[in-house]
Amino acid sequence: MKKLYHGACFYPELWNEAVLEEDIKKMKEAGINVVRIGEFAWSKMEPEEGKYDIGFFVDVIRKLASHQIETVMCTPTATPPVWLTHGHPERMYVNERGETMGHGSRQHVCTNHPYFRERARLITEQIAQKTGRLPGLAGWQLDNEFKCHVSECMCQTCKTLWHKWLREKYQSIDRLNEAWGADVWSETYQRFEQIPQPGATPFLHNSSLRTMYQQFSMEKIAEFAREQAAVIRGYSDAPITHNSSVMFGVNNEELFSDLDFASFDTYASKENSAAFLFNCDLWRNIKKGRPFWIMETSPSYSASIESYAAPHEDGYLKAEAVSSYALGGAAFCYWLWRQQRAGSEQPHGSVLSAWGEPDVGYANVLEVERARKEVEPVMLSTVPVQAEAAVVYSDRAKAFLKTEPHRGLNYRSLITGFYERFVSLGIHRDVIFEGSALDGYKLLFTPFLHYMPQELIEKASAFAENGGIWVAGPLTGGRTKHHTIHTDCGLGPLETCAGVKTLYTFPMDERRAAGSAFGVKAPLSLWSAVFEARPSEALGIIEQGPASGKAFITEHKQGKGKIVMLGSMPAGEAGDVMLKRLISHYAEEAGITMKTDVTPGTIVAPRTGPDGIVWVMINMDGKGGEVTLHKDAVDLIANKREAAGRLTIGPYQYRIILFPDM
């Protein structure tokens, strides 16, 4: 990293030359040093089929560069022009109700249609040829928010590709019927072409069908991204990303495997700051060792012509920016620079209003810029410390839970709530993918993974064998890769590995079921696994409800370490206490050292550099906080010594503390 970026999404094609000049001048005043352009401008770049005009954007990039503002160039494929769609319903996205989208909004075309793919390749090539080597080009963004407004497409193109995908995956129809248990409800297929898409039905689709279709869709959008990236690399060396999210219908692990750096969009409010921090801890590890970008966040509030969110409190934007830089980010960018005068998002918060005056969040943008300049020397000379505790995130698990949500469960909410307990306990943590390496970790959590791949089980088992502590569950291991139930034992290979016997799996009712562990009695909830275990290995016992006297938490020695099974989700206030005690217990046993007693609502982001360990302390809740310094240190902002003991921080304040190497 040579700098910290402070940026905004910019739409010069919507304004005249005078506004462009004014915008650049005001960007300099606000400290904006990078902009993202082009993602919705296909009709400007190719007003008629095959007639290209990229010159406007070439001029804009050059003009920005002359003012020391760098550019992220986008491919505009999220908004195909009307000449591509008019009179061609076969090219359009079709939802699960069989409704064909018309032209308008965005993501209205099927990204798998061959004509769209060809036109997308050609416009990408034209943009890359004209802009790929320009001075000031910081990077590339593919498309915009894949699968944000749409889910799995049900058009005829996708149906044909779906059948091809199934044939390649299963090889024979008999194998598919066996894997899916298609005899249930007489769903046995005679050939691949008979297999439907998961559209409208009187009741529910076969679980295998629905989950596999999600995986098919995720693979196809990743394929589209690879195609665009390959075209760009023929003309440009600038790094490539996509502005994704854990909310969208994509497999981010697969999507980013062929991209150069990770970026995401977030509009979390102060009340949901855990989701913001979760994203930073995940995206830091998507492209390990490479800084991530926040490509979009609001300078004040998000809105559309149908809804709006409350503006941030003064100071919160600064806290977000500094925490993102401290947790491994290189860029903090807004959507958007100048308020749009038309369209569906005209009410959205911006840096400038449509008439060119500072918007309500402008003062906070200036505050972010002052903070960026202040923290930049430290961020450029240090790197985030790898955590010793890791939580596994899986977009495949998100697909399984979308198919089988039980009573409206949402994977993103479940995993964020689980993660939030690490934050509240002051434990530095990484969020990693199923395929991530486990080197350097001491404590591993794999919650809410309906299906655990054999590779992950073997890797986590070896991790425990070598001295790590692996906590599996809740809601983990009960399904096969085809989204069916194991027939050898309740949790399949996970059960065998963990040295337990699953007696039952059933939904715990927190109004009637309760269990005790770590000195706490709490209600138990969610679909649960109940274990038969030796008394020495049964750490959590069900005391109320079905299966009383049996175990819901077990501990099994594995080589130098151990495997812990969490079979049910503790609920309510007592459940929160129990989970925190479980996490704290195993953090201490695993020898976690990157842990502070920071007060709730404040975080400590540890970094390391040539002079020692640095703590970046940020208050996120506007109430201020405290942390204990374990030894004398130096405040790098105030340039003064700080004695060991309690250190305070004000509302939305940040402090940077160095513990010098002795």
TrEMBL record:
* UniProtKB keywords: Glycosidase, Hydrolase, Metal-binding, Methyltransferase, RNA-binding, S-adenosyl-L-methionine, Transferase, Zinc
Question: Do you know which CDD domains this protein is assigned to?
Answer: A4_beta-galactosidase_middle_domain
What GO terms fall under cellular component here?
beta-galactosidase complex
Annotated SAM-dependent MTase RsmB/NOP-type domain residues: 1-64
The record, for InterPro entries, names:
Beta_galactosidase_C (IPR013739), Beta_galactosidase_Trimer (IPR013738), Class_I_gatase-like (IPR029062), GH (IPR017853), Glyco_hydro_42 (IPR003476), Glyco_hydro_42_N (IPR013529), MeTrfase_RsmB-F_NOP2_dom (IPR001678)
The keyword Transferase is assigned to this record: yes
Q: Which Pfam families match?
A: Glyco_hydro_42, Glyco_hydro_42C, Glyco_hydro_42M
Q: Which Gene3D superfamilies match?
A: 3.40.50.880, Glycosidases
Q: Which domain of life is it from?
A: Bacteria
Catalyzed reactions per annotation: Hydrolysis of terminal non-reducing beta-D-galactose residues in beta-D-galactosides
Q: What PANTHER family does the entry give?
A: BETA-GALACTOSIDASE GANA, BETA-GALACTOSIDASE YESZ
Q: What is this protein called?
A: Beta-galactosidase
Q: Whose protein is this, by species?
A: Bacillus glycinifermentans
